UniProtKB/TrEMBL annotation:
<dbReference type="GO" id="GO:0005737">
    <property type="term" value="C:cytoplasm"/>
</dbReference>
<comment type="similarity">
    <text>Belongs to the cytochrome P450 family.</text>
</comment>
<dbReference type="GO" id="GO:0005506">
    <property type="term" value="F:iron ion binding"/>
</dbReference>
<dbReference type="GO" id="GO:0020037">
    <property type="term" value="F:heme binding"/>
</dbReference>
<dbReference type="GO" id="GO:0006082">
    <property type="term" value="P:organic acid metabolic process"/>
</dbReference>
<dbReference type="InterPro" id="IPR002401">
    <property type="entry name" value="Cyt_P450_E_grp-I"/>
</dbReference>
<dbReference type="InterPro" id="IPR036396">
    <property type="entry name" value="Cyt_P450_sf"/>
</dbReference>
<dbReference type="InterPro" id="IPR001128">
    <property type="entry name" value="Cyt_P450"/>
</dbReference>
<dbReference type="InterPro" id="IPR050182">
    <property type="entry name" value="Cytochrome_P450_fam2"/>
</dbReference>
<dbReference type="GO" id="GO:0016712">
    <property type="term" value="F:oxidoreductase activity, acting on paired donors, with incorporation or reduction of molecular oxygen, reduced flavin or flavoprotein as one donor, and incorporation of one atom of oxygen"/>
</dbReference>
<keyword id="KW-0479">Metal-binding</keyword>
<dbReference type="GO" id="GO:0006805">
    <property type="term" value="P:xenobiotic metabolic process"/>
</dbReference>
<feature type="binding site" description="axial binding residue">
    <location>
        <position position="358"/>
    </location>
    <ligand>
        <name>heme</name>
    </ligand>
</feature>
<keyword id="KW-0349">Heme</keyword>
<protein>
    <submittedName>
        <fullName>Uncharacterized protein</fullName>
    </submittedName>
</protein>
<keyword id="KW-0408">Iron</keyword>
<dbReference type="Pfam" id="PF00067">
    <property type="entry name" value="p450"/>
</dbReference>
Amino acid sequence: KVVVLAGYETIKDALLSHAEEFGERAEIPIFRKMTQGNGIAFSHGELWKTMRRFTLSTLRDFGMGKRTIEIRILEEVNSLIKYFDSYHGKPFDTKMILNSAVSNVICSILFGERFEYDDPVFLTLLKLMNENAKLLGSPMVLLYNFYPSLGFLSGASKTVLQNVSELNAFLQKLFQAHKEEFNENHLTGFVDAFLMKQQKGQTMFSNGNLMFSTLDLFAAGTETTSTTVRWGLLLMMKYPEIQRKIQEEMNQVIEPGEMPKLEDRKKMPYTDAVIHEIQRFANIVPMGVSRSTPTDVNFQGYVIPKGTEIIPLLTSALNDELHWKTPDQFNPSHFLDANGNFIRREAFIPFSIAHQRCSFQGSPLRASTGNFSAHSLSSIAEPIFNGPAGDNRH
């Protein structure tokens, strides 16, 4: 049994006004099989509260949302630009390199170090995660989620689980290296902070929770940010006048030779509006995390039975004509008032809404990796598109 919530007002009514009735996270078979209830994204109850609280406090301790992490972002953007420049204007696929750059920011938080873009260990990690991200949205895995008993027919779900097994073996080697060099007086990142909890005998801090909390952080910070930047590059190619306006605004705020800082964002309303509009227009996460009804629910004249899966259709909010003047067009003025000041729109819910949003949405992780988008789009010279024409969507 599935109910899809469409339109911003409906999503808001369900997930805010009826938060208790739609409060449980749905049990999704493939994720249950993958995580065994470990980590943050798909755990429940006291374990979820403990892991989430520890994660958010640890991210802040290691500089998320502060100047510390911003320096790492600046360093990574500089490495990214040098890599782009190495092609001397020749065409290349940006997906893997952008994933690598954003993942390196996450790695610096998790492990206290970054990897070279051609590091075979790093490339293996990204390959496995990228393949799983693609497979988890495939028709065969979706079929498995509705009919788990048919799992023996789904080669895709078997590949996902095999990749998780390989990721586990890969990460355990990294964790072991950190255990051997562990110094409680010099914690290098999230993994070390987790290991300290283990050493103190706190039972919830198991190896399984370490592994899947690590993967959850990768998923939360990497895919959405790199996809935002890729869409940004595409849209800047189509609308060079918009990129020129971003550059003009930054030239007024940023000193020559400097890079934009988080604190500068308030002084650059147009740039902020463009980044928000990229996420709205690109529809990066079409559906929010599935919820479940713990009891029978009376909602807008309908009785929704206990145990019904609830899917918020975020794309319907991001294209809701009641809230967006030109929902089918890329239009940064959606986030600007008549005086050119930035305004945040109520219906802007690219990842989810308030109480039910991703554990990391609004967290220091999202804020800091999101800043990667501003640095990247403002630092890369005007791109040139020489490929075949696509469709004519505005």
